[in-house]
Amino acid sequence: MPDSSTLAAWGLPGLFLVAMMAGSVVPVPSEAVLAAVVYGGTAPTVAIAVATVGNVLGALTLYALGRWVASGGGGPLGRWYLRRRAKEGPRMERVEARVRTWGAPALLMSWLPVVGDAFVIAGGMLGVRPVPFVLFVTLGKGLRYLFVALSTAAAL
């Protein structure tokens, strides 16, 4: 995997790629690449849009995994996830409880490091409808990227 400076040199395609990976379970520094792209002269609004779309597409892979596992599928990947879920225990139970209680608005928390992915998978496992899922995940992740891009632009 290329480092964040290489991805930033790729410009918007690199930002899209790293944001999409970060939206799934791959731990990559999408915020660092976003900051580098904005620092390099890309308009913050364009960079925010590209990063948000990529990150939401990555989150949709986790959502699909959650739906698949909940329906009894998943094969080896589903079994791995169920083992991981059992290992996480209380944290995953708390996340699922929040999604059951708050519904789709709980997905605003998808921007959080580490636990955000758990909210996304829980949304899929608990059957949050696709349109509210996309709306709330986009809002949560978009606000994170807005903060990073505006902070970078203000530092210029």
From TrEMBL:
Alphabetized Pfam families for the sequence: VTT_dom
Which domain of life does the UniProt lineage start with? Bacteria
Give TM regions: 45-65, 102-127, 133-155
Q: Which UniProt keywords apply?
A: Membrane, Transmembrane, Transmembrane helix
Domain spans labelled VTT? 28-151
InterPro entries the record matches? DedA_domain, VTT_dom
Name of the featured protein: DedA family protein
Organism, scientific name: Pyxidicoccus fallax
Q: What is the lineage of its organism?
A: Bacteria, Pseudomonadati, Myxococcota, Myxococcia, Myxococcales
